[in-house]
Amino acid sequence: MPLRALFLALLSLFIAPLSLAADEDHRFDDKLVAEANRLIEKGFKDEAAYEIIESLTTEIGPRMAGSEQEARARDWAVKRLKKMGFKNIRIEPFEVDRWVRRSESAAIVSPFPQPLVITALGGSVPTPKGGVTGDVVRFESFADFLDSPLTGYEGKIIFIDETMTRSQDGSGYSVAVRKRRTTANEAAKRGAAAALIRSVGTSSHRFAHTGSTRFSAETPRVPFAALSAPDADQLARALKHGPVSVHIELDVESLGPVQSGNVIAEIPGRTDELVVIGGHLDSWDLGTGAVDDGAGVGITMAAAHLVKKMNRKPKRTIRLILWGSEEVGLVGARAYAEAHKDELDKHFIASESDFGGGKIWRISTNFAEDKLGYAAAFRHLFARFTLAEGNNQTSGGPDIIPLSAMGVPAFRLDQDGTDYFDLHHTPNDTFDKIKLEDIQQNVALWSAFIWVAANMEGDLRSDSPAEETVETQ
After folding, report:
1. Whole-model pTM above 0.70?
2. Residue 91 reports pLDDT greater than 70
């Protein structure tokens, strides 16, 4: 017997008992499992995703929301999707506020003059001509800052020095990102001249991490930037010697609404039910957006293409979405949910790849409680990869949040993010960080998920809708 045939025979013996161990009402058909396993085998040999990521990051580079580069990325995607043979390819436009970074600098003025590495945070206002100089007031945590009085900081520069916890699932981010989202508003309430934060990231290198912030219409906007971790450490050490004065110059500008868009392509099915997958096409402007989210774009495009090459019409239509303008507030995701709100009942399941290029290590779901047997069936499908069992509260990925919140069942192949926030939103997010073997593992599992989701029997929503609850991350 040829080695390949022997491998598949042994694999079917290994998988079948696991499938039978699932709830009989929710198990996958043995033929469907065998087809998924053949896709997995092909995925581990497929280099298309790696080539797609290389092409996107090399030929387009940074893809800031609303920029000419993001528009070129949409054209790039349409061209590639047509060449790959997808159907119903189109761009669904929406508007996004365009923000640009021109230059940024900071320095300790006294008592120890020296430059600091910073980056302006998305949406920040510029400093006045000539910059802003002020004495620094440091807070060890964001909570300490929120507890501080609303007076006594006029003309000061607020500095939040809170660190981020490294974790495999990225759970430290949800805590650390609060200071990036809210510090500027709180500093403005207190009359501060500007605000600085330790970068929301886990890197010890001298790169500052950018990212979006939220400004309130009720408060004035103040210049807002992030320090690299070593420079945050340096500033904290300097403050131990007494008062420190810092000078900041930010040349940034908000240009108002411009057009962005979501790129959509499909593998038509026999029904109008939809399996939604994808990644976001935009990136921040500092790096080339390889891990965030060129990886997700490449993984889902390549996995869908493997499914397409089966030359078999799936039961459900597979809809690949390359969302636009995710980084500045899920703008494309919200636009898609609004544009398709009248057909959300046709959205069978949704999932996004947007956590870099690391290996998949866990499965998380958001199915109705009475359909969790299907979650067990998916775990059995991937049992030989010894993936951890996640919870039933996933959003499915950032761009799936609006859909999940509106009741669309969500699924996520969680990637190892131990070092993801070393690169996230920095100049160091570049193609050399992508590992072929890790990307291939992603494509293998994603292709199997797509095919099974598109052809499985049943429904993932509750048989008793009044009792169903939807949670998001």
Report:
1. yes
2. yes
